[in-house]
Structures are given as structure tokens and as C-alpha cells.
Amino acid sequence: MSSPLIGRALVVVGAGIVGASVAYHAARAGAAVTLVDAGRPGGGVTADSFAWVGSFGVLNSPAAGPAAAGLRIGATDEYRRLEAELPGLPVAWTGSLSWRAGESAPEVRPGQEIVDAATAAALEPNLRQPPDWAVWAPGDAAVDSVGVTERLIAGARDHGAQIHPDTPVTAVRRDAEGRVAGVETPAGPLPAATVVLAAGAATAALGAPLGVSVPVDPSPATLFRFHAPAGLVRTLVNTQDFDLRQVAEDRIIAAADSPEHTLAAIRSTFRGAESVELLSSRVGRRPMPADGEPIIGPVAEVPGLYLAVMHAAIALAPTAGRLIAQELVNGSTEPALTRCRLDRF
């Protein structure tokens, strides 16, 4: 790893939840941090996430390789830590309830248990037909992804970080010896000894002029918002039809494929859902590395350049931000990140 960053400037490009976490943890550790984003903090794909932290359902969960799985371990503990450091962090510890109609109960993972229909009905009183079995994960949480991002940025600012929203980065600057020297923006250059690219799918375009190929592409994911009665859904509900949760007294959101099918499934699953109506749908462009694993770490060919790109960013951000800051500020090599390096491609 590189030498410690204390006393040297660090620019983080991208104020989604990952960049905000890196900026907060690095500033808290004593680095001189500047966070820059082309838009508003948390206004990109971070805002389009279902934002489930924990066990990630049961049978239809996306596969996680060893690097992502290793970072997910303890994700809820990392959010508990952030809650203690940043009072008011918008996290709802609702637990999650998952099932698949017509299938047998699976083996459970740590933090999960199989519950019967009576328990499922107690957890979700509005179910029309409680499932014969469900996987209950009481430690799972839902987060307000934009709210968490804003709170991380406020925490970074409290530790001296400079924040530049609505400031697109047009290029990474290098000195005569090829080392990173900062970034270019329409408002002028921002000098730095280290630049962290945490710009999601846009990271590839920023790396290309440097001769750095970052194998990440946008992966579409649709999030539906519905008007719904208060208290319709109590937990994070995961079925073959949707991921569903209540986000406000009169709002629920669903991660699913079809608005018509999702609306019909909600109405058939819950009593009192006849008045549920679709309000909006948005397609988020999740940054998806070619092998699904996070891309985190320094780029040997461009001294001073560091990458932080990953799927499941909401769940991984507190852990990744803390470990990245330790590598940058302390000059350490974190074992949990060694499988995430760009040179595996």
C-alpha cells in the first residue's frame, strides 16, 4: 500500500453512499478530504435502491462471491456502529420475512430462523394467507439511502471535509512523473495526492483516459413507489413477486419487474391493499462489476489512484468506507479487501 495520507489532500469523486462513507471515515481519521459530485449527494443510483441491509432474502438472492460475501458479514453491526457515531441515522430495524409459495423451507443462514404460519401472521398481520413457512431475520434493517448519505456527508463536513455538489469531474490530473495530482472540474482544478473514484458506473469513463480499464457496466433495476394504507407492511417482505417495505405512513416501495404484476401481487397478498396505487417507477443504473465482486483498491499503474466500485453498495458502504479509509490514511493493507483488487481481471 501507499504511504499514509495524514497531512495530504484526498479527493473523493462521487457523493453516493460509497463515496460519502469513504469521505466520512477518511475525514474522521484525519485526512484532508474533498468530496465532489456532478449532482446532488445521494441523487444518483443511491436514491433508487431498495436499501435492504442484512440477509438479503432466501431463494432468489443474488449470488455473492467470496469478496462481497466477506464484506457483507457484519453489515448490520457496521450500521449499528454508524448509528452510535452519527445520531439520527435513518435506519429502521424491522427485520425481514421471506418465503416462496409451493416450495419447501430452505436451510437458514446465521441470523435467520424458520417460522410457521402463525408466527408469520403475527409479524405481518395483514397477510391474507400466511405461508406455511417463512424465513425470519430479526436483525435485518431498511435504510433511507439518501438520508444516510446526507448524514455521512454532514459527518464528513464536521471533520473538516470540503463538499462540492453540482461539480462534474472532467478528468483526473497527473504530474510529470505520472502520479495523480488531483482532478479537473469546470470550476477549476482540485489538487490532491490521492483520488478515489467512487462514481459508480461512471468510474470506467474516468479511468479510461488514464489507460485504466475498469470492467463495470450499468445494470438496470426498477423500483416502484405506491400509495398505500398506513401499517400495511410491517417488515421487509421478500417473495417470488417482490421485495416490499413501508417507507412512510402512506407509502410503500417494491423492487420488482412489472408494475401491473407487482400491484396485483400486493393486493392479493395483503388485506386492506385494495386502495394501493402506483405513484412512480424509476430504473436505477447500478454499477455492476464484470464478475459481480467489488472493485476496491489502488491502481499500480497510476500512483495515487484508488477505486471504490461495488454492487450492493447500500449494504457494503459502512464496511467498505471504514476499510478504505484505513488503507488510505494508515497506509495499511486490509485483508478483507485483498480479493477486491482490479488486478484480478
UniProtKB/TrEMBL annotation:
It comes from the Bacteria. InterPro entries: FAD-dep_OxRdtase (IPR006076), FAD/NAD-bd_sf (IPR036188). GO terms for molecular function: oxidoreductase activity. Residues 10-326 form the FAD dependent oxidoreductase domain. Keywords: Oxidoreductase. Coiled coil: none annotated. The keyword Calcium does not apply. The keyword Oxidoreductase applies. Pfam families: DAO (PF01266). One of its GO terms (cellular component) is cytoplasm. PANTHER family: GLYCINE OXIDASE, SARCOSINE DEHYDROGENASE-RELATED. This is FAD-binding oxidoreductase.
